[in-house]
């Protein structure tokens, strides 16, 4: 099969890209994300038709946040869009006249990294995506592990603190409350509030108040040596690394890939994660250690992965 | 391939059994477990030779507690026997003249249940063994998931309480400190100590002191309505079920199988585990639920599973 | 000194009562709670003047939620009203022409119970108030323990779960997130959501949805045997009792008094709290146990206590 | 009253000292600690008689680890010596012919610091002693707060981690498992085991293995910049400071005094404790902050305090 289209549904825009067999994006089209469930489907179709012009495309892969069923056809539940048992595959196929595969967006991103990014050369890979929340994907023996019902790899909802922080999922103590972009901001605000004299650079990058601290301020401030910003990354890394150690006990992959906006900071965040991973890895002296790698495809991993999953059929 | 031998290495005895293609044990031989690493290897060979008499066996599968390498040949680390990078496969092959496969004992038991026990008809199964500690095994797509380095499915060391109880592995807060036979005894002793008037039946079955409470007393007392015994099972089930909910978020199997001595109590312990599983399952209303099944092969699962893994080669 | 006035500032109304030396309320006047800080002060003055008519009153005691300074004059910080370093004593004295004493409302309630309620006959008492949140007060050697800066006995913000639930105070894992009326509602909603078939009575008392469950439904349902309602009270009691055991390790009082709306349920909630207290009390077999008593003055404890504190001067 | 004797019962030796009204030790005598309960009593008497020679002493104060009753006469329970309801006051009075006061050793040390050490000038002081375990004492309004039954200020057994580490007291998650000399050693060993390359100095001070690390190595290594040693102190400080923040919410003292062997390291450990205290102090911007002071009397605080308590009668 030749060219396929990958679709990434973001909070503000929907991107559709024509992707070749090497994972290269030949063309891309974006439209704003509509606010209604039906609107999103129409917008996906628009973006697909738009980007297809001049390309011989054979299939479409869509990465969607939420639970996707075992047939990769229906979105059982999407937390951000109001989709409940939405027959996304059928509706988009009707509109664009191409075979469609739907996949969880973090799964698609994991597949993209496995095929064309940091995971090349590994057959057993676990990816975590540290974005606003925490998503993940699993490759076992060169195949995407979707689970029996299609909802595997929901790492963000691993319970890491009994009776811990409330999560949007209704549960408490979920890993994404402790290791995600949102958690990073909380760490920085709490620390800046408690000790503003250690957060002068950080506070200076925003409006001067702890509540005004945003994610981008934290990485900028950390690079400039701000103690609160550095400590906030360290706290994030403590939780991220400890969770990876748990995943090593369960999956035993040869590599972990850490993606998402937080990981754009590279070794600023990856080195502390590696330390924490090693610190908490059970039986660490008796086993080979998985590598902890930075993702390579950035925000395009999901689109590229979805396109490739569509190619595989 | 016809008959194979499965070997189970227990703390007090080593059992070798001749197993047919249906998982039936045709013959069995046991020897006491020696105290030296080399002694154990000789005892395995003795038991294998002894039970082979009169059977046409083609291979041997050994289930061993600890880390087994990715070639299923070397025990990297055994917590109970002093094996460190022990070339078990080679040493036993030299002694018995048959091909040998080594597998982690909980993996072998999971495979046995999948092939001939509660897991029949399922392709994606996660097993936990609630014995003295907590072990586990994973079947994905009808294949045993060993991990890249052979050490997957170490469920007992999932960190469920940050800064929690010390574990023999050197880490803290490991799941097996909260969901295992040993944990059950701790729960009962603590509760009987705090409120002996609620543990009259339970205390009466032992020597009358909290420290004298043993595992078997707790199930007997629970069946007789002892409040402390019932509450101890409930506490065990809280932790077991919450952990299964985590595993559902990660693996998304169609069934969980709960084995080990604690599960011999059947619905006394399984029903509370099912409740707790459902209580903590993330997104429970938007996804199919895995079944939580009792293991069917009892203490023979490891032996039968090891024999079958040897047959598969 | 003869009669004094106690003032209780609630979220919807302000009550001023004339109280005699025996703690009896002779007359009471209520006004709605205004929405501005200055409005509240005027309303307090109005209520005081109104209720004074026909009585010879000599002083006024005001119970206010928040931090009150060591001079019992200034509200340093009130979480509900926008008071920051508010000179409440001076402002009210100017308006009503009587000496005024300001006290934290939970301290005032504790004093009321000590003098005229469940604490009579005890010299060392620790009170907790399980209302929407969790407040407290301490009597040591027959004196209210205010602390060096006036802000002692902030029990609600004891950290009982590291990295636990966010609290309005900005911290995490505060006791009032686990033991309070608000926590009780959360327990019931979570459990009803996970297992609606065990919450039929409870759900039937509201609008049928977990989110529609209110505090009063839970006690009604518990009395009717609803499993989720009963289990929610048990969870509340686990945390309340464990916290009292901590306070016993620190203060070692002869009695605990449990007040607030939750405690209106009497032994429905007090018995499980007593069990949990005993379960977690350190060294329980080597020490006399403090009693755990139900408050006797209900919602009037704060008003009566504030009046009596004004009398003591 | 003029001179009194203070007695400190340690694990290896018993010290008796003649102390004047200014807290100065005029003479001191030590004997080895016998292994039997009765032997300890005789040894106390021997040490008292020995040190009395040439002094006009009027009373004896004994600091003992464990629960001391409200009459300051009977040791209800001593964890190290096998004393259970031991009438220590009577037995020693019979042997030495002087009035005897018995006090919990951490209470005695707190009193010593309050009267003659870091607590001078404060009326409301909370002391913690970071020794092998964690003890404490409370001064409120210039008086030692013993509690109604004599067993207040058992800070070490505050539950800071639900389902946390087992404690010798039978409970779990006690503060002294996280903030004490023993905890410090555990932190260092765990970290050195996980990352020996960051503990080269520390490991070099002992026998080269993580298990060989002792407390004194950690402070020496920290002063030489060893990363694991520094991080171990930081972890200790996290827990110590967070606990002090809890105690501030409860007692609201004007000062905390940190004593015990761990605090001998001075600002190496006190500065991180101060930071952590401030980090976790609830409502920190709306209240005056208690000072966190280093103890001044070192290992003599208990002896001096016990002597002074005997003087007060």
Automatic annotation (TrEMBL), chains A, B, C, D:
<dbReference type="Pfam" id="PF00480">
    <property type="entry name" value="ROK"/>
</dbReference>
<comment type="similarity">
    <text>Belongs to the ROK (NagC/XylR) family.</text>
</comment>
<dbReference type="InterPro" id="IPR000600">
    <property type="entry name" value="ROK"/>
</dbReference>
<dbReference type="InterPro" id="IPR004654">
    <property type="entry name" value="ROK_glcA"/>
</dbReference>
<dbReference type="InterPro" id="IPR049874">
    <property type="entry name" value="ROK_cs"/>
</dbReference>
<dbReference type="GO" id="GO:0006096">
    <property type="term" value="P:glycolytic process"/>
</dbReference>
<keyword id="KW-0418">Kinase</keyword>
<protein>
    <recommendedName>
        <fullName>Glucokinase</fullName>
        <ecNumber>2.7.1.2</ecNumber>
    </recommendedName>
</protein>
<dbReference type="InterPro" id="IPR043129">
    <property type="entry name" value="ATPase_NBD"/>
</dbReference>
<dbReference type="GO" id="GO:0004340">
    <property type="term" value="F:glucokinase activity"/>
</dbReference>
<keyword id="KW-0324">Glycolysis</keyword>
<keyword id="KW-0067">ATP-binding</keyword>
<keyword id="KW-0963">Cytoplasm</keyword>
<dbReference type="GO" id="GO:0005524">
    <property type="term" value="F:ATP binding"/>
</dbReference>
<dbReference type="GO" id="GO:0005737">
    <property type="term" value="C:cytoplasm"/>
</dbReference>
<comment type="subunit">
    <text>Homooligomer (possibly a homotetramer). Alternatively, it may form a heterotetramer of two glucokinase subunits with two ORF2 (AC P40182) proteins.</text>
</comment>
<keyword id="KW-0678">Repressor</keyword>
<keyword id="KW-0547">Nucleotide-binding</keyword>
<keyword id="KW-0808">Transferase</keyword>
């Amino acid at each position: 099969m030749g060219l396929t289209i990958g679709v990434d549904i973001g909070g503000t825009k929907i991107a559709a890209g024509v992707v070749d067999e090497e994972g290269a994006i030949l063309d891309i089209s974006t439209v704003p994300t509509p606010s209604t469930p039906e609107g999103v489907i129409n917008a996906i179709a628009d973006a697909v038709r738009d980007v297809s012009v001049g390309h011989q495309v054979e299939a479409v892969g869509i990465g969607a946040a939420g639970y996707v069923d075992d047939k990769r056809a229906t979105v059982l539940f999407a937390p951000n869009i109001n989709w409940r048992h939405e027959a996304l595959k059928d509706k988009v196929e009707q509109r664009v006249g191409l075979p469609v595969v739907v996949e969880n967006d973090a799964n698609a991103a994991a597949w993209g990294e496995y095929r064309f990014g940091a995971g090349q050369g590994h057959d057993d890979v676990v990816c975590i995506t540290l974005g606003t929340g925490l998503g993940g994907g699993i490759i076992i023996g060169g195949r995407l592990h979707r689970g029996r019902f299609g909802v595997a790899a929901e790492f963000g909802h691993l319970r890491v603190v009994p009776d811990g922080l409330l999560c949007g999922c209704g549960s408490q103590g979920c890993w994404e409350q402790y290791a995600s972009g949102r958690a990073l901001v909380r760490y920085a605000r709490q620390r800046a509030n408690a000790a503003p004299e250690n957060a002068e650079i950080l506070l200076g990058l925003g409006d001067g108040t702890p509540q005004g601290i945003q994610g981008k301020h934290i990485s900028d401030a950390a690079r400039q040596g701000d103690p609160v910003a550095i400590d906030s990354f360290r706290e994030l890394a403590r939780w991220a690394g400890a969770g990876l150690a748990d995943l090593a006990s369960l999956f035993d992959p040869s590599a972990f890939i850490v993606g998402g906006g937080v990981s754009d900071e590279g070794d600023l965040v990856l080195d502390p994660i590696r330390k924490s991973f090693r610190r908490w890895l059970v039986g660490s002296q008796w086993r080979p250690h998985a590598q902890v790698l930075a993702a390579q495809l950035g925000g395009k991993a999901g689109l590229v992965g979805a396109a490739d999953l569509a190619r595989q059929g």
